[in-house]
Amino acid sequence: MIVLDTGKxxxxxxxxxxxxxxxxxxxxxxxxxTMFAFLVGKRISLRxxxxxxxxxxxxxxxGLVRLAKYILIFTAVIEVVGATILFFCWQRIYSPLQALxxxxxxxxxxxxxxxxSLFSDSIMRYxxxxxxxxxxxxxxxxxxxxxxxxxxxxxYGKNGTLSLHAKLALxxxxxxxxxxxxxxxxxxxxxxxxxxxxxxxxxIYGSIFQSVTARTAGFNTLHIGSMQNATLFLIIxxxxxxxxxxxxxxxxxxxxxxxLILYVLSSLKGKEEIQIxxxxxxxxxxxxxxxxxxxxxxxVIIMTILLSYVEGEDFIKVLFEVVSAFGTVGLSTGxxxxxxxxxxxxxxxxMFTGRIGPLGLALSLIQKxxxxxxxxxxxxxxxx
Length: 384
What we know:
Blueprint: H1 6-9, H2 12-27, H3 29-40, H4 46-55, H5 64-90, H6 96-111, H7 130-144, H8 147-154, H9 156-159, H10 164-188, H11 200-216, H12 229-241, H13 254-268, E1 274-276, E2 279-281, H14 285-311, H15 315-326, H16 341-356, H17 358-365
Antiparallel strand pairs: 1-2
Helix pairs in contact: 2-6, 5-6, 5-7, 5-8, 6-7, 7-11, 10-11, 10-12, 10-13, 11-12, 12-15, 13-14, 14-15, 14-16, 15-16, 16-17
């Protein structure tokens, strides 16, 4: 979802600015500000801790500074390892300096789930390279499951347990990747513009890669604009769900989607409580889940109507563009560069709202009201 070729139309300085913005966007403004506070020896104020608590989805302010340090360390280590692997893959093709630059840029872009590439075709030219595909997939997954889950996985050997949040985020992520892989593989296997003419290993690589990158990252090894409408709609769903909380990705988040499914299943079974992994889910979280999904759907619907009216493109392409912007994914069927000024403004607003979250934006704009002392009579309404 770019209007200019990052590798060709930007100077080295412009690419460096983009890279810095990718890193800041992936880590989050509060984590970056905490890092700078460390560097200059400044104390973290209570107000900053409260803002960090909200941005990292924490239940208390205890240990937030230590968590920020872990986030920075994890990010540095993962990106260095990813860049090292990519460097050894690309040094056979490019000069050592160019290979290093490409490796660092793409490692940061992949882990931060940004999707920016210095290659004009994203990484379609490497769809048959197992190591490059696997490196990108691992970086994207690690960036998308959330820093809190990464920390728990790191400490799993010592603690031997995972929180309910980590279990749900990992389970939903795995299910979505598998479902996406299977559907993309079978739908696109007969499509001459995507998988049909590829070898069997390349079909597997391509299907897995697109299933992983669709929810968060925005890279592609297959031509998105040539995919079947059924595949595009599947990718739209994956982009809308997005990554996990406290991660570098967008969307409504995997745990939000998981809680919605659990809530529906519990209602169908006539259960008053939502249970998973031998734990009860707090009922207080359900209104927030429904609010996030309702506001997100509302945003997507409104922006799709506006973009359809302004541009007049095929509906599936317009919907794809809007959801990709909302989920901060970056995939496109190829219409981004041809959008009018009004269309680009709509996409920018959608990206901005999707990144900070519709609920966060709504809460910041709506003034809090004092609790009402009057309670009105209760009455039932028919639904369904």
